[in-house]
Amino acid sequence: MLYGNTDQIDITPSLGTLINGEFTTRYANKIADPLFAKAIYMHDGKTKLLIMVVDICVMKRDFLDSLKAGIEQSIGVPASNQLISSTHAHSTGSIADLLMGHIDLAYRNQLAEKLLKLATLVVQKEQKIKIAFGKVLKPDHLTSRRYRMKDSYQPRNPVLKTVDAVKTNPFGYESEIIEPTSIPDPEVCFIGIKNGSDEWIGLLANYGLHYVGDCERGTITADYFGYFSNKIASLLNSNRIVSMMSNGTSGEVNIWDFIDGDRYPKNYHEKSKYIGEDIAEAVFNSIDGLSWETEADLEVLYQEISLNKRLISPDLLKESYAILAKTDYEAVAYTDKDLYEKVYAREQVLLESIPQQIFFPVQCFRIGKVLLGGLGGEFFSASGKALKQESDFYFSICLANDYVGYVPPANEFINGGYETWRCRSSFLEENAEEKVIACMLSMIKKLKSNER
Question: What domain of life does the native source organism fall in (predicted)?
């Protein structure tokens, strides 16, 4: 028998908080909609699981490990059995340095307290539950943001000082595009949760789309993740349901369409609303055919694998120090023509303090026949689709349990582009993705063999 509960807590920061997710820091002067952390707790009498989806850009291990230790001590769910992920919305509070988007330490402390409180709340009032797995196709809102360009356009690599073969988000150079470089994963996968009275109490969805980002620079918003959650709750006519959208393998995917860019409304928040609600309606229209499991058992596999930092030549590092020494970073502006050069020079120097070897968490849950992987970075669509080939009931939640930045397939480093530029949000060795995916594939195969 499966038992559990769902709950949520408001984590909206105050005005004036720092916002990261762009090249420079922003300051919140408007709150468009509230931010939440949402939780699902399950146990089958032997194994306990905790899943959290948090409206924030990123959370790293230096924050999450101590939080998980506190949760384990408080409610008894082992740290390895906790999957805590960021939606990766880019207009939320900031608890990690990203490029020149800085940490709000006061909010970081507040968030830790609220997530611990959420964990203690969700284990209360547990009840018999049943789950169902579903998926629908929504390719409409996905575009590869990496493009092959005509020879007349030479995309500059600010780290290697070379010309890339691809350009990410070619604003102003749409006429130079030849084609996108990948085909996104079109699936919206989801787990539905009902109680013993057949009432909806939870829905965890997953989609391989970056944030939408159609708001003013100083605005706090949950982006399309929030609009999805509100709409699905309305469609299911449930005040009790805790609904959440998690980030899938979307490292090279967004909806800033440079080929057919006029197909969405233009006003602030309208595109996020349209996309979130459209996905919710597609999920809602598929639920009549769901098959519900009441006797699902739980299993967890967790491993930390060793990955290395990507190296840079001594000459390029020396040049970065020289740029850093002559730059007044307090005066650096988002509109500077040499912004990339200044930002990435600083990144090379700051990367010197990161150990050459890190340990990356790979985690896979089995909930009945459903397999759910936790990956602590921004992985590309090809990685997610390769994992799904092993099981029709698998999906990846990215930005979970850590944030190491982009983890592109090895061939993408030949192409270059923003996601491969060496920095604190893209610093792992070129074969890191291969190692992570091999580990996850092994877990999927093992968990599939253990299904009852």
Answer: Bacteria
What are the pLDDT digits (tens) for 358-380?
Answer: 999 999 999 999 999 999 999 99
Chain position carrying tokens 């990261």: 20
Q: Residue 334: its pLDDT value, please?
A: 83
User: What per-residue confidence (pLDDT) applies to 452?
Assistant: 66
The rounded distance, in Å, linking the Cα atoms of 258 and 179 is 10
Predicted pLDDT at 135:
97
Q: What is the pLDDT of residue 260?
A: 87
Q: Which amino acid is at 198?
A: D
The answer to whether 174 and 258 have CB atoms below 8 angstroms apart is yes
pLDDT at 119: 98
Domain boundaries, the chain: 3-143+181-304+355-449, 310-351
Those residues of the chain that have pLDDT short of 50 are none
Angle between helices 270-284 and 223-235 (to 10 degrees): 40
Backbone angles phi, psi at 100, to 5 degrees: -110, 25
- Quick check: 5 and 122 in contact, CB under 8 A? yes
User: Would you state the structure tokens that stand for residue 240, as one six-digit string?
Assistant: 């009790």
Q: Looking at the DSSP assignment, which residues form a beta bridge with residue 38? A: 8, 53
| Strand partners of residue 30 | 219
